[in-house]
Specification:
Number of domains of chain A: 3
Shape of chain B: globular
Number of strands of chain A: 9
CATH class of the largest domain in chain A: Alpha Beta
Number of helices of chain B: 26
Distance between the termini of chain A: 47 Å
CATH topology of the largest domain in chain A: Rossmann fold
Largest interface: A-B, 37 and 43 residues
Order of helices and strands of chain A: HHHHEHHEHEHEHHEEHEEHEHHHHHH
Helix content of chain A: 40-55%
CATH superfamily of the largest domain in chain A: NADH-ubiquinone oxidoreductase 51kDa subunit
Number of helices of chain A: 18
Helix content of chain B: 25-40%
CATH architecture of the largest domain in chain A: 3-Layer(aba) Sandwich
Structural class of chain A: alpha/beta
Oligomer: heterodimer
Chain lengths: 424, 910
């Protein structure tokens, strides 16, 4: 099985050196891209059916096609790597950055070249100190080898890359809030339209892309879209970094063909549930996705199949719920996080999530009522897409709305028994 | 906001076709059509950001779409064919749910909250129908901050609508108020307790839809809005004439709020105008006539007045802060040849020049709304933030005009506020500020020029010559001057609506002419330039229209013949003339009659003092710097001895048996005479409808309470409300049928709209002109036969003198204006008088900041604190007068300076 994203990973988890990276074909993709026209690079990415790995799954090539190109286009244009990985349960971008930093850099340069961007930023989660150190060193190395800077490899193309550590808060992972944060403003999202491709960072055309997405770009150029499509088990192209956390035997991260069934990932790679525990459900792509349960275990883990099963692939890092853990407590933990991270811009989110987590805590403490259940149901509809300013709140209530559906009994017991039945 | 209405779109609301402006959003469209859609974060002056989610409506793809989806009206263009329902049940329950969310942490403060009764949150809550609270958890709370004596802070009530910081930071350019923290506990405040720095901070009390920011002065004597007796008024604290709505109860003035006038102030007031009103309640108020220094009755006073007038030989000194009517009554009483301007000769000359310039054309005097839409501005010699604050606020919006093309190019509608600002970034239209000292508008200026007044005039003459080479050139211009002149000229020529602003602040005739020269050159070059002159007080222009004689001639007349009765109208001569001259005059003159509101040096020396009504106790017309005549109406019922000066003068004339000088017993009679006598005042009676033309208009809202109990201590019989002989306004709750004309509207209110947002119901297009028409009548228009030629006298370059400094005034919004200084809140914010010098010159003089400096002007010596200002040019000293006697120093003048403790010789001083 080909594993382009993780093939260089060292067993000792140290960063791949520049020398090793080049030896294994590193920066060949860049060389190839520089010999193509930028529009052709985009075309390749389009044909590869690469979809955004940050959670939304938007076709990457199509996203780039909205960037104004050519002599009349405004400059500078920006490429931003969204490295603000903070979704609870998600740890894939961290692995990519810590263990093979040059891969991200090469991917960024090729993507930047495709959209004729002049300046790039890696917006890095502030807590990822190890990634920061390793990326900073890799950027300096890339500069020295003229992979970055003026007139890259004599091609005439110039690209400056800056590493920026975020000052904090989950909402910065939302691409337009990220842009506000990068500009030094309060990190709340922006309305779209106008899209960042038209008016992004400092009002200029900007593409914001997830780390894992960018890491695929130069591979596509290097080996071609057909190769990329061939890596996958389904319609989408490429491989996917899948993660599993929860009470499984071997929590971890694996690069597998896109569309690998959930059961295979959990049982074969994560070793299945720990002894004495049964599978109750899983959030397929981090905290802000809907629960999938037993009946969904054979779902191929790609964007469309997971959506048909009533959830979202999101980041593809699964959080597994076992049958000895209280679902209400788990949902409270997640809603507590989301309530805490609401930016405060729009009423349904900042008011609704606060009320929601208070109710869940009360339920856990045995003080919940039937009215509370009505309120929770109401909040999941109140915080729907379009009702709120951005996708944060709708994502935040996904685990709650699916828990109310699949674990209704647990909620009912908390209320009727005036306690959490899972606590002794 | 752009103003064109090129096309009209048809939209469908509840399946009914309606017309909308396709350049606007649906919320604006619905409100303009009269639909009640609730909202918080949107504001006509601030545009849409989509934060509160209150304005949700259901949008349908077409007639067949039965499901539709919720959209925010403020974020959706009113495009052709748009189909929405406001009453849709999903939309209605969503809107109620938003209120429910806002109410989770909102305290049950209504009974003790100052906002109650004019609270937008109350109104919107009732509008959405949300009633029952099921939220049972704790509410988040905050510690409040001290923000100064003018604005009160109560953060628990906050609904996070973002309006305060958007207005304060984005619209008004303030920096010390910000949003802190996140989620449901965003905190709007300063990084630490302290006085809010923006001159427009008071607008927070109207911008905030709840009781977070409230009027701290009102709080000292709080009254509910519905309990106030109100009247339409005009601010008297600068020359812009912003429209206000004033409210009183139990005979004391309680507060001032903005009264929307699309052409003048729009939605905002400055802090001086909002909080200066408390001078009306100052302990220094003259409330009874004084004869020979002792309290007297009205009849005693009029008897003395009659006696004095019968003696003959009376002269009158008018006032730039008294109404046209009062000034005219005095002029008639003493005769036009014996009526003098109550301002220094130089200032009168400047005003006469300005009037001539604005009439003989071709540059027009613009309204403040037009100023906001100018796309290139040249400010010559004015510190507008302190002298004409609302003009400065308008100019902050004007620099957004030219860069709008960036947003247009990206198809971003101009009401989508944050998207526009994101696309435009720091780009600003051209604004050039040329002044003797640094001003706050400098921070948004393209370029600034710091120089002595004559040099600023020279720069402007150079600009005119670049624009039109047939204008006289500037001989001996330096390379820098030429470069700057070219830069300014180019920007003005490339604009569609260029503007030149100047005024009387520098007391420089050349500057006034040079400003005209630039505007005229632009007109000649095919660019329809606007020319705006500001003045110091609320009726300088009005006073000048009455053609008073120069003040110096009054002083000479009294010196020549002390056996004179001098009648001083609403003026403190100590502010208009140097102390020694005033002292001699007050000593020499035989009889002195003073009419004024507050005690001062002139009233103290007067044999007869008549208590003149302020704007709150009298009716009158003021002419603002645009040339717009606007009328204010009294709010107090006439139960005290205080009355309009023009009424005192009429009654005095009657007491003296001078029937010819009695112009009538009512305002309408007086204005009719004025319009007959003075051609420039021909349209004066149309400034507001006369008493007979309009039906009764209540000063009190229909919920006014306590009417019968209020006077029960005097008599249990309910008295007939006093009559108002001067207007259709009534001192009661009773209104006749019919629409109230905007010029007579005491306050805005509509059923379900108790807050300031009710003004929506009186505009045809929200944010546009008032229905009827915006109050005021322009008196200064271009003559139909423009008759002008370029000014040919250009002053020589300013040469700093070896040991004397040219004094220029330094203005402060709090402290430079006479009346507002007496308001307790504002008096805490005024600075003491000081003399500012360049640090280099200070060190040559051997003085440090904060030390005292000896200042010799002509024969008078003063001691002033030193302030160092590196922005002052060499040879220029800045004087912040903050009151008489320093106010009385006639500028321009040179002074000598020395450190206290060293010799300051009077010989050789100019």
């Amino acid at each position: 099985m080909e594993r382009p994203l993780t093939k260089n990973f060292r067993p000792d988890k140290k960063a791949v050196s520049l020398a090793d990276y080049e030896r294994s074909g590193g920066y060949e993709g860049l060389r190839k891209a520089l010999r193509m026209a930028p529009a052709d690079v985009t075309e390749q990415v389009k044909r590869s059916k690469l979809r955004g790995r940050g959670g939304a799954g938007f076709p990457t090539g199509m996203k780039w096609s909205f960037v104004p190109m050519g002599k009349e286009a405004p400059h500078p244009k920006y490429l931003v790597a969204n490295a603000d990985e903070m979704e609870p349960g998600t740890f894939k971008d961290r692995a990519l950055m810590e263990r093979d930093p040059h891969q991200l850099i090469e991917g960024m340069i090729v993507a930047a070249y495709a959209i004729e961007a002049d300046i790039g930023y890696i917006f890095l989660r502030g807590e990822y100190e190890c990634s920061h150190e390793r990326l900073a060193r890799a950027i300096a190395e890339a500069h020295e080898r003229n992979y970055l800077g003026q007139n890259i490899l004599g091609s005439g193309y110039s690209f400056e890359l800056h590493l920026h550590a975020s000052a904090g808060r989950y909402i910065c992972g939302e691409e337009t809030a990220l842009l506000n944060a990068l500009e030094g403003k309060r990190a709340h999202p922006r309305t779209k339209p106008p899209f960042p491709q038209v008016s992004g960072l400092w009002g200029k055309p900007t593409i914001v892309q997830n780390v894992e997405t960018l890491c695929n770009v130069h591979h596509i150029v290097n080996h071609g879209p057909e190769w990329f499509l061939g890596l996958s088990l389904t319609e989408d192209g490429g491989t996917k970094l899948y993660g599993v956390s929860g009470k499984v035997k071997r929590p971890g991260l694996w690069e597998l063909p896109m569309g690998t069934p959930m059961r295979e990932i959990i049982d074969d790679y994560a070793g299945g549930m720990r002894d004495g525990l049964c599978f109750r459900g899983a959030l397929p792509g981090g905290a802000s996705t809907d629960f999938m349960v037993e009946e969904h275990l054979d779902t191929p883990m790609d964007y469309d199949h997971v959506q048909k099963a009533g959830s979202r692939l999101g980041t593809g890092t699964m959080v597994v719920l076992d049958d000895q853990t209280c679902p209400v407590g788990m949902v409270w933990n997640l809603e507590h996080f989301f309530a805490q991270e609401s930016c405060g811009w729009c009423t349904p989110c900042w008011s609704g999530l606060s009320w929601t987590e208070k109710i869940l805590l009360a339920m856990e403490e045995g003080k919940g009522s039937a009215n509370d259940l009505e309120t929770l149901k109401f909040q999941t509809m109140f915080l729907a897409p379009g009702n709120t300013f951005c996708a944060f709140a709708p994502g935040a209530v996904e685990p709650l709305q699916s828990a109310l559906k699949y674990f209704a009994d647990d909620f009912r017991r908390h209320i009727e028994e005036h306690r959490c039945p899972w606590r002794s | 906001m752009s103003v064109e209405e090129l096309t009209v779109a048809t939209i469908f609301i509840e399946n009914q076709p309606r017309q909308a402006n396709p350049k606007q959003n649906l919320l604006h469209a619905c409100l303009s059509l009269g639909y009640d859609v609730p909202y918080f974060c949107w504001h006509p002056a601030l545009g849409s950001v989509g934060a509160c989610r209150q304005c949700a409506v259901k949008q349908f793809r077409d007639e067949r779409d039965a499901k539709g989806k919720l959209v925010m009206a403020c974020m959706t263009p009113a495009a052709e064919g748009t189909r929405i329902s406001i009453s849709d049940s999903d939309a209605a329950s969503f809107r109620a749910a938003v209120i429910q969310g806002l109410m989770q942490s909102h305290p049950h403060d209504c009974p003790v909250c100052d906002e109650g009764g004019e609270c937008h949150l109350q109104d919107m809550t009732v509008m959405t129908g949300h009633r029952l609270r099921t939220y049972s958890f704790g509410k988040r709370t905050f510690r409040n901050q001290y923000l100064g004596p003018l604005v009160n802070h109560e953060m628990n009530r906050c609904i996070q609508c973002q309006r305060c910081v958007r207005f304060y930071r984005e619209y008004a350019g303030g920096q010390d108020l910000n949003a802190f923290h996140l989620r449901n506990s965003i905190y709007y405040g300063r990084h630490e307790d302290g006085v809010l720095e923006s001159e427009f901070s008071g607008n927070l009390v109207e911008i905030c839809p709840t009781g977070v920011f409230t009027d701290a002065t009102l709080k000292q004597h709080y009254t509910r809005k519905w309990d106030l007796q109100m009247a339409p008024s005009i601010c008297v604290h600068c020359s812009l004439g912003c429209n206000t709505s004033v409210g009183e109860r139990y005979g004391t003035l309680r507060r001032v709020v903005n009264r929307y006038n699309h052409e003048v102030n729009g939605y905002f007031l400055c802090d001086r105008g909002r909080f200066g009103y408390e001078f009306v309640e100052s302990p220094a108020r003259i409330r009874h006539p004084l004869v020979d220094g002792k309290a007297a009755t009205k009849s005693e006073a009029l008897e003395r007045f009659g006696t004095l007038l019968r003696e003959g030989n009376a002269i009158g000194i008018g006032s730039p802060r008294a109404s046209l009517e009062s000034n005219f009554a005095l002029r008639t009483l003493v005769g036009p040849e014996r009526f003098y301007a109550g301002i220094p000769k130089g200032e009168l000359q400047l005003l006469n020049s300005m009037l001539r310039i604005l009439r003989q054309g071709p540059a027009r005097s613009p309204s403040l709304d037009e100023i906001e839409h100018c796309d290139a501005v040249f400010v010559l010699g004015e510190d507008l933030t302190n002298t004409a604050p609302i003009m400065a606020l308008r100019l902050r919006q004007s620099v957004r005009q030219a860069p709008m093309r960036i947003a247009d190019g990206l198809h971003i509608p101009d009401w989508l506020d944050h998207a526009v600002r994101g696309a435009v970034q720091d780009a600003k239209g051209p604004l050039f500020v040329a002044s003797p000292y640094a001003t706050k508008l400098d921070e948004i200026a393209t370029a600034t020029c710091r120089a002595a007044p004559d040099d600023l005039a020279r720069l402007a003459f150079a600009v005119a010559h670049v624009i039109d080479p047939s204008a006289p050139p500037l001989a001996g211009a330096s390379k820098d001057e030429e470069e700057m002149a070219c830069k300014i000229a180019k920007a003005l020529l490339e604009a569609e609506r260029p503007l030149v602003v100047s005024g009387t602040s520098c007391m420089n005739q050349s500057m006034v002419e040079a400003a005209a020269q630039v505007a005229w050159a632009l007109c000649k070059a095919g660019r329809p330039a606007a020319l705006s002159y500001t003045a110091a007080e609320c009726n300088n222009f009005g006073l000048s229209l009455l053609e008073p004689r120069p003040l110096s001639e009054a002083f000479r007349a009294i010196k020549d013949n002390p056996e004179t009765t001098l009648i001083v109208l609403e003026n403190d001569l100590a502010r208009r003339s140097p102390a020694d001259e005033v002292d001699s005059l007050l000593r020499d003159v035989r009889h002195l009659v003073a009419l004024d509101h507050l005690g001062n040096a002139t009233t103290e020396a007067a044999e007869l003092v008549l208590p003149a009504g302020t704007f709150a106790e009298s009716d009158g017309t003021l002419v603002n710097s645009e040339g717009r005549a606007q009328r204010y109406f009294q709010v107090f019922d006439p139960s005290s001895e205080v009355q309009s000066s023009w009424r005192w003068l009429a009654e005095g004339a009657a007491a003296a048996g001078l029937e010819d000088q009695v112009l009538g017993h009512s305002l309408d009679q007086l204005t009719a005479v004025m319009s007959d006598v003075m051609p420039e005042l021909r349209t004066l009676p149309s400034v507001a409808p006369p008493r007979s033309a309009a039906g009764k208009i209540a000063r009190e809202p229909i919920r006014y309470s306590g009417r019968t109990a209020m006077l029960a201590n005097i008599s249990v019989h309910e008295p007939k409300p006093p009559d108002d002989p001067d207007s259709a306004l009534a001192f009661s709750m009773e209104s006749g049928p019919g629409v109230v004309p905007p010029a007579l509207r005491p306050f805005f209110w509509a059923p379900g709209w108790n807050s300031v947002q009710s003004v929506n119901k009186f505009q045809d297009e929200i944010g546009g002109p008032l229905r009827g028409h915006d109050p005021g009548v322009r008196l200064i228009e271009l003559s139909s036969r423009p008759n002008w030629k370029y000014f040919s006298v250009i002053p020589p370059a300013f040469a700093p003198q070896p040991d004397s400094w040219l004094l220029v005034p330094i203005f402060h919004i709090f402290g430079s204006e006479e009346l507002s200084r007496h308001a307790p809140g504002i008096s805490q914010l005024v600075s003491q008088p000081y003399l500012a010098v360049n640090p280099i010159e200070a060190s040559l003089l051997g003085v440090k900041a904060g030390e005292q400096l000896k200042v010799l002007i002509e024969e008078s010596q003063y001691e002033l604190e030193v302030v160092l200002r590196a922005d002052l040019p060499r040879g220029i000293a800045g004087l912040h007068a903050a009151g008489p006697p320093l106010d009385g120093i006639t500028l321009p003048v040179y002074c000598r300076l020395a450190a206290v403790g060293s010799e300051l010789s009077a010989r050789g001083a100019q």
